[in-house]
Amino acid sequence: MKKFMKKLIFSLLLLIFSGSVFASAPIAQIQAMLDKSPILCGNFNQTKTLIGISKPLLSNGTFCVNAKTGVVWKTLHPFPNTVKLTRDDITQIQGNQTVMQLSAQQEPVVKMINSVLFSLLAGDFSQLDKTFILNGNIKNNTWHVSLVARDKALAKVIGNITLDGNTHVNKVMIHESNGDQTLITFSDIKNHA
Amino acid sequence: MRKCFALIWLFIIILLLAYNIDLIKNKRMTFNTNILSLLPADQQDPVIQTATDHMFNAVSQQVAVLIGAPNWADASRAADAYLAVIKTHPDLIQTTQYSNADLTAFDKYRLGLLTLNQEELLKNQPASYWTNIALGSLYSPVIGLKLGTWQDDPFGLFSGWLQARAQETPVRPRDGKLFVAGKKNNYAVILMTLQKPAFSMSTQKTVMPLLNQAEQAAQSSDPNIKIISTGVILHAAAASNEAHKEMSTIAVGSLLGILLLMWLAFRSFKPLLLIGLSISVGCLGAFSICEYLLGELHVLTLVFGASLIGIAQDYAIYYLCSAHQELKKLWPGLILTLTAALVGYTGLALTPFPGLQQMALFSGLGLIFAWLTVILWFPIFVTPNTIKVTNLAKKFDNSLSRWPLFRFNKKGLLIILLFFIFISVGLFKLTVSDDIRSLQNPSPHLVHDQIKFSQLLNAPTLVQFYLVRGDSEQMVLQREEALKLQLKTGYQAISDWVPSIQRQETNQLLIKQKLLFNHGPLDSLAQHIGENSTWSQKVKNNLLKSSTLLTPELFFNMPASQPLKFLWLGKINNTYASIVAVRGLNHVTHTDVTLQGVQWVDKISAISSVLGHYRKYMGHVILGAYGAILILLFTRYRFKAWRVLMPPALASLSTLAIFGFLGIPLELFHVLALMLILGLGVDYGIFLQEQSRLPNNQAWLTIGLSAISALLSFGLLGLSQTPPLHAFGLTMFLGLILVGLIAPIFRNTNGY
């Protein structure tokens, strides 16, 4: 249950990246390429390869990022599961049952991460640059960025993250330090300006 | 002969002076400012005493500072500036380094570690619930922060337990610092430990400027930074500062007032110098001997020393006003006044309050030294020709004959009746208060910071807690667990980290029965993700491996136990004990919990009840002192002895009645003042009684001078911001006026 919290915080970070842009030289250019609509929605496909589990785990669903109200991450297959993020809390709903709700009051990291998220959506990139070392390059209208946490303890847990995209983030790849891998691809992204 | 004694006395005084100079030179003069040390050691229950001492010691050396800014980077930079200053003095303050608590140490115990909530869910939720939980975590966007692989904790029980442990404090590591989030600001948390005793004034004198300097450094890095400082030393330093200021105000004020008064009475500097000399010697002797015997004096003892001036001068004033008499004839009065005062102080010394004993010793010694100075030195300096009272003073003394006199006639009895009604109604209205908190007057700024700090850090209170006892460590843990079931939330306990062996075994059984049985949640999980029974058997075996039982000993060897050690008292005498700390005030009524081996300890109310106990006890001491002094006086005045005691007795009763009418609740320190009213009142009664044997001894002048100067010094105590001194001073103010006005009413109607 609360295990999700940590995962969600992490996924939050990913959503931040998928929905936004980065500072520093090539990063600044990538930032310029990205769609800056306040509301972005689309579909996702996720493939997880875990150590000790022979088959990759496939799932898909929809997502929406709203600069004002937060993020909704809705898994539709293989079973319904919704995660909602606002500035001050995280809610997980399985079926119609809320299986987890965590407020910033209970877990201060929620607020910290959420504040990073919202400051990014608002166009304040100084925070992200402080948490991660960003490296990016651009080829033929598509770009690639890799992120490594500046904090060594955090980097050890998160491992390496890469993002690929053009006007939107198209692909997120996470290599965890224990060998687990997660690939998320986005499609059909629409902005609701 | 007389000169020989005077010389010996001079030699002793020089020795004492040398001792004090040595003290100052070697900086060995230390003062105690801890009000709690004025209370008797609670000998009724050594375990409670150990527990409260333990809690107190755990915090008294700590200083915590929060440095906040809306932007974490700004707060972090200001914290660095603060720390840079602090680190220049590692001999005074050590900063607590944040060490990443290694939670993997719990790995091999994980099967026995469940939160209460997890236990509930395991007992009540169907197998499908757990399968869904596991699948949810498996398909959730990312597997993030966790220990080991997904299979090590498929149902998220261990990470849930760790999360619950982490949530005991909102403080989180961030960029090598500790961090806590407020509503507007992000705060860097700086934890420091003093290397020298917080209650020592020399520590305060060196540490406070360092803290201020560090604060300024943080401010200069960002002027909008918010700094919240807490620590026992801040309160102690503020209190000693206040006491220092007051002490000098009282000393200077009372000295100036007395000087003016004496000048009006004698128009000469010599009496002033003589009175000053006797008082100085009294203070010097009292301080030196107390310092030598006790090692460390309480600052309140010193403030009481200032009040000593008022009494010690009685001897000098009596001698000076009667300088035209032979010393021989003054002896009875002088000996009686000193003896009566010492009898009164003996009562104080008999109380179990270490502070009161100190004060009794200090005051008693001061009186003896001042008295000896009068006896041994005054005859050398004072001859009938050198000291003469002014005409103004003579006029005042003669006014005694116009003062009303109490007689047992109709009018006298009517006055008794009216007075009786006044006293009865007043005493009926009188309430009492023994709240320890009313004895301290911390600055609003410090209180505000303290509250803000507690809110931000969700810190448990340290003066109220549950004390859990048992014959063994395991029994203590089991009793904690029983207690926690009743409390539900808002507590902090060691058994959250180390469940009892019994509980760990039931937890393991619960996991086996609910999750790991054949065709249970784990097996259906395997099916969902396309794995076979070999896979689930492997996962099962892996989980069952982590079933080592955790004991307190093992736990306290882990670095993660460091911040929780204060909760574990371990073995005290033949029992084991621990503390279950509580947070906030919105809590169940603690006294309602009745469990074997569990006790609600409220230090504030415990101390308050001790104060109340001794307020009553002091009352008895005073009654006893009246009795003892009456016997003493009877040896000289026979059936006129009551006349000596009437003024202080009536003044005290009237003061109490006035408090009743004004709605001022009676506290220990009011009662204490009544003791001094007795001492001074008896002096005045004695002077008046002696007059009938020794005409022209100018008793009324002596009383007037003494009462007014005592009023000056004690009146200033009434202006004190320290609540106990204020209470004391106010009582003295009323009592002295009354005793001065009442004393002549009971003078003898006919002389010898």
Can you tell me about this structure?
- The complex is a heterodimer of chains A (193) and B (752).
- Chain A has 5 helices and 11 strands, in the order H-H-E-E-E-E-E-E-H-H-E-E-H-E-E-E.
- With 193 residues, chain A is of the alpha+beta class.
- An 11-stranded antiparallel sheet of chain A has the order 6-5-4-3-2-1-11-10-9-8-7.
- Chain B has 25 helices and 13 strands.
- In chain B, a hairpin with a 2-residue loop joins strand 11 and strand 12.
- Chain B is elongated.
- The relative contact order of chain B is 0.13.
- The chains are: A alpha+beta (193), B alpha+beta (752).
- Chains A and B meet through helix 1, helix 3 and helix 5 of A and helix 5, helix 6, strand 4 and strand 5 of B.
Distance linking N and C termini of chain A: 35 Å
Structural shape of chain A: globular
Mean pLDDT of chain A: 71
Helix/strand class of chain A: alpha+beta
Which blocks of ≥5 consecutive residues of chain B have pLDDT under 50?
Answer: none
> Kindly, what is the distance between the CA atoms of the first and last residues of chain B, rounded to a whole number of angstroms?
33 Å
Q: Tell me the structural class of chain B.
A: alpha+beta
Largest sheet of chain A: 11 strands, antiparallel
**Considering DSSP H and I runs of 4 or more, what fraction of the residues of chain B is helical?**
55-70%
Helix and strand arrangement:
The complex is a heterodimer of chains A (193) and B (752).
Chain A: H1 2-18, H2 25-33, E1 39-49, E2 57-66, E3 70-77, E4 81-85, E5 89-94, E6 97-103, H3 108-121, H4 126-131, E7 132-139, E8 142-149, H5 152-158, E9 160-165, E10 169-175, E11 181-191
Antiparallel strand pairs in A: 1-2, 1-11, 2-3, 3-4, 4-5, 5-6, 7-8, 8-9, 9-10, 10-11
Chain B: H1 2-25, E1 31-32, H2 46-60, E2 62-69, H3 72-86, E3 93-95, H4 116-124, H5 127-139, H6 157-166, E4 172-174, E5 177-181, E6 186-194, H7 201-221, E7 226-231, H8 232-266, H9 269-294, E8 297-298, H10 299-321, H11 327-349, H12 354-381, H13 391-398, H14 410-429, H15 444-457, E9 460-470, H16 473-487, E10 491-492, H17 501-514, H18 521-528, H19 533-545, H20 552-556, E11 568-572, E12 575-583, E13 598-602, H21 603-637, H22 641-662, H23 668-693, H24 699-718, H25 723-742
Parallel strand pairs in B: 1-8
Antiparallel strand pairs in B: 2-6, 2-7, 3-6, 4-5, 5-6, 9-12, 9-13, 10-12, 11-12
Helix pairs in contact in B: 1-9, 1-12, 3-7, 5-18, 7-8, 8-9, 8-10, 8-24, 9-10, 9-12, 10-12, 10-24, 11-12, 11-21, 11-23, 13-24, 14-22, 18-19, 21-22, 21-23, 22-23, 22-25, 23-24, 23-25, 24-25
